[in-house]
Amino acid sequence: MMNSLIVSRQIGRALKTLPKIWDGRKSVLEMKDAGFPHWKQMEWIGFYFQFLCETHLPKIVKIPGPRYDKVQFDGLKNIPWDFKAHAINTSNHQVIVNDSKAIANGIRDYGAIGLILALGEVLYNDEDRTFQKWHGRLKGGKSKYEKERIRRGAWSRLRKVSFDLQQISFIKIDDSTLVKCGSFQRDFRNADGRPRREKVLLDLEKIDEELVYFVKF
Length: 217
Description:
The chain has 217 residues and is α+β, with helices and mostly antiparallel strands. It has helices at 4-15, 24-33, 44-56, 100-110, 130-139, 144-152, 175-178, and strands at 21-23, 67-68, 71-72, 75-77, 79-87, 94-99, 113-123, 162-173, 182-184, 199-203, 211-216. The chain contains 7 helices and 11 strands.
């Protein structure tokens, strides 16, 4: 069986050709034109990275990966992989990985699960809400979520308008890693009262041997 370093290098070579600068409008339109189902999402950067991985990796990685209950990993190559993006120009160095139970099951079945993490600097230069308004018009108006936020009087977050890709990290997560991880959404509930699925929270400052490989841009 191929080890994680060899697999990470294979995937890394394929992703080395990704664009370094991701413009919000161009990225959203690219996803929309390709029929990618998540182009309407406000947090477009993570979904754009998923879109790029699905575009560049199908000859190397089986996409999608294994499913556990309602949770599906993004890909499978030796171990299950998830594709995530994270802004490095913030004080928060924690990454929400995936459903805790699904990760535990993936580790049980494959020995580990992997995280392919795009790290870069985000630009929030949207004080006049130009990008937000443009994206809203493109989607056909305010979403149910946005209408509910307005009804509650909650503050609208500034949109990320671009992403400068700095590095793609390949992180291997096994049982020993979970000991160092926190949890997200524990005791949280959905609007209908059902409990939300607890997710693993990975602190990038605590990983060391888990970082198997990386590609710089």
